[in-house]
Amino acid sequence: MGDMTIRLAGYSRRIAWRPWRLAGLSLLTCVVIALVSLACGRVWLPPGEWLAGLKRGEGAIWLIVTQLRLPRVVLAAEVGGALALSGWILQQVLRNPLASPDTLGLSGGASAAVVAYLALAAGQGGAWVRPVAAIAGALLVVASVYALALRGGRVTPYRLILIGVGMGALAGAVVTLMLIVGRAELASSAYVWLVGSVYGANRADAVTLGGLLALVLLFGVPLIRYALLAPLDDALAAGIGVSVPASRLALIGVASLLAGLAIAWGGAMAFVGLFAPHLARRWVAVSGSAQALAAVAIGASVVMSADLVGRTLFLPLDLPAGIFVAAVGAPFFIGLLIRETRTS
Amino acid sequence: MTTKAFGLLLAVICSALVSLAAGGHWLGPEAIWHALVMPEADNIDDLLIRGTRASRTLIALVAGASLAVAGGLIQTVTGNPLASPGILGINAGALLALVAGAGLLSLPLAGSGYVAALLGAGLTCGLVWLIAMQGAGRAGPLRLVLAGAALAALFNAISQALLVVDQQGLDAILVWMAGSVAGHSLTGVWPMLVGAVVVMALGVPFLRHLNVLSAGEQTARTVGARVRGLQAIALLATALLAGNAVAMAGSIAFVGLIVPHLARRLLGSDHRCWLPGAAALGAMLLLWGDIVARLVIAPREVPVGVAMTLIGVPFFIGLIRMTGRPHG
Amino acid sequence: MTSIRADELTLGYGRKTVVEGLTLDVPDGATTVIIGGNGSGKSTLLLALGRLLVPSRGRVLLAGADIQRSPTREIARRLALLPQQPRTPEAMTVRQLVALGRHPYQSWLAQWSQRDERMVERAMQRADVADLADRVVDTLSGGQRQRVWIALAVAQDTPLLLLDEPISFLDPAHQLDVLDLLRTLNRETRKTVVMVLHDLNLAARYGDHIIGMRDGRIVAEGTPETVMTADNVRAIFDLVCRIVPDPCVGTPMCVPVGRAL
Lengths: 344, 328, 261
Ligand SMILES: Nc1ncnc2c1ncn2[C@@H]1O[C@H](COP(=O)(O)OP(=O)(O)O)[C@@H](O)[C@H]1O
Ligand SMILES: [Mg+2]
Hints:
The structure holds 3 protein chains of 3 kinds.
Chain A: E1 4-8, E2 11-15, H1 17-39, H2 47-56, H3 59-93, H4 106-121, H5 129-149, H6 157-181, H7 184-195, H8 203-220, H9 224-229, H10 234-239, H11 244-266, H12 270-283, H13 289-312, H14 321-339
Antiparallel strand pairs in A: 1-2
Helix pairs in contact in A: 1-3, 1-13, 2-3, 3-8, 3-11, 3-12, 3-13, 4-5, 4-6, 4-7, 5-6, 5-11, 8-11, 12-13, 12-14, 13-14
Chain B: H1 2-21, H2 29-37, H3 44-78, H4 90-104, H5 109-133, H6 141-165, H7 170-178, H8 186-203, H9 207-214, H10 217-222, H11 227-249, H12 254-267, H13 271-295, H14 304-322
Chain C: E1 4-13, E2 16-25, E3 31-36, H1 42-49, E4 57-62, E5 65-66, H2 72-76, E6 79-82, H3 94-99, H4 114-126, H5 142-155, E7 160-164, H6 172-189, E8 192-196, H7 200-206, E9 209-214, E10 217-222, H8 224-227, H9 230-237, E11 239-245, E12 252-259
Parallel strand pairs in C: 3-8, 3-9, 6-7, 7-8
Antiparallel strand pairs in C: 1-2, 1-4, 4-5, 9-10, 11-12
Residues 42-43, 84, 164 of chain C line the site of magnesium ion (MG).
């Protein structure tokens, strides 16, 4: 399979066929899962039926699909995709295969802020307070991790990781403290959030998160090529004219925003950010934008299927997607590890 | 070096004594001496020390030391500063066993908890090893860690599912998840104490080889080390130590993750120095965590994991900022 | 023409000073070879010339301007630097890695212009890695990898090339290939080449200008004939040797006798 080059006026890009084909395949899987998710639920709607229902633009089917299922499916995809991309970027930038949004204390910060809100002022101030608290908490922790890791105007991946781990532990301790000394019902209400779920998603949620993510990606996508350079030696990257500290900071910023937003709406589904990038790496062997896209597709697929399982398999219970993210993803990943014939 | 070792030892002993003395009701040196050397059955102070404080002091000492050493071992084996015993699925396995035991079999957490958690931790660790050994490639450290993380996530998910469906035991489990060294009788501590001491003593002759292992697999092979064997031994020790500690003191992740970094920065990169040092630091950290935990909001208690993290993190971050990257 | 010179440079790591008060004028359009014992500060000097090490005193001037104050992308179009032992990234193909050399010329829109493609293909051919183009770099041998790094530097298409031990892992035939390639680039397009070599005879054969370093100072500097004397070799390396003319090209050749005591 040869490669393809696109050149249009000032635009030019080389597209390696194989990685993009694989990324396309994972995207296709993602779409299929989304369609299945729309069809499944308390009532089973065969695709033909709901398509017809959609065309009519009214009626019960139309209502179920567009008002109940679609927002939830879209939100799940957004959350999963954003966490996966964030994890992929962080694994590149921090040069550590165990890095994830947790590594920089992102989930910890968001969780601490949300639990504090639930403990102190649950239900007050409207629906927007919780996501805002989560994002603020996440960004506050990342910013302090970055500031604490600065020495002589530079950060190294190694220092970032260690300080991130420390701050993450601190945030985790704060969460536990509040859960244990807080009111009795706090634990159970916070617990569902901590596990992560897209329960009760409505159209406004999906649209808001989508819009915000799109905004971040507007800045983030041009930075992807710097993420590809991140595993290089600092000296080499600087040698080809990359400002290493600036690109590192920008990438961490983008990864933090992506994960912060996802966590704000979907809760702390830590597993996605760690594993989706690994699955993508094993699927699309060569690092590049195609691999990043595959990570997004895989992350979205995993959360969508997890939510699907959570809301259909245990009817009438509607279990948080966060539980099944690992339940769906982990066996798959373990199977892959077992099947893998050679490792580097 | 000897002064440092001596200083650490002294600090551990002092911390242990403070731990015996501290609490809602402070006890003086003579009361401690009395309780340890010539206890009387009807003396309230003696009962207090022998009944509660001695056991939690011992648990904190042993669990802190075990977790720190286990963390150091796993970081050396994987060569990854992010690795901690939890990544082998130990905490997740123990948690699942506890939750399943409490939820499905309605076992009491207090009595059978230790055994259930130990079983869960051990089985999970073995499963991780089996998964990593599958396939044509040998069990490389990265495979191991990924398999462990995946299995841990899976088991945590199952525990969470059980907890969300049946929130009966949630409070007790939450306490366990936050870590606690209280609530055991002195006789209940012995199995854990003996286990940890035996594993550590057996491990001493291997410390030398860990230095070779940390130089990288290839270098280790060229100087004649049996890398896979060493890794397996180190992992076994990690599982035993951490499983033992977690079963007794709850899911305390922080010690295993952070104390090894502290120890390396303070004591250099020779495993013969820093790993025993990590044991001392881990013991001390957990002791002080427990002391603070029972003092700040007395008569209630803060979970020891929380108190320890709040004490340890500022230290840790300060140290990282002060020193450069350690060698190796 | 882009000239580079160092002005009263003091270089070090943390509190440790490695090079002190070094002044150097790199001849334009020539091949300069730096020789010196291990730890004599060759890599340190090269890093500073490539703006990757900030001098604690003094300046590096690229075309008259302080290199630390110029935009890094702009410098990357004028100067390519190959560090001594770069970390090999996982999961990148040879072509991807060599294409990084075009980074300073690209923007987000224009990521693969015709010129980029031409330069990358040519660089891979010249460094003899075209056959390996679709291989993943960390599956290559040490010498093959070294040639990929050289291709990257060549693809950067700069008037100035700084190379730290570019032939240290290569077989003798590829050593000559690389040196011939650098000479061709130097002769055809008047590129300035600065490189660190450990093979004194190849240094004398391919260098127009030789710099001998010891303990962070320049001990000898000049044409191969003036630098490659028994006295200088002794002063630089503590090595006793005899100098004879190279039977092929007549440049001085050093036949080691033994360690000076
Ligand atoms: N990153 C570093 N930190 C501290 N010292 C260094 C570093 N890199 C090199 N050095 C020291 O600087 C001196 C010169 O090193 P270098 O320039 O690499 O020598 P060489 O001539 O072999 O290339 C050596 O003594 C070396 O130990
Ligand atoms: Mg050098």
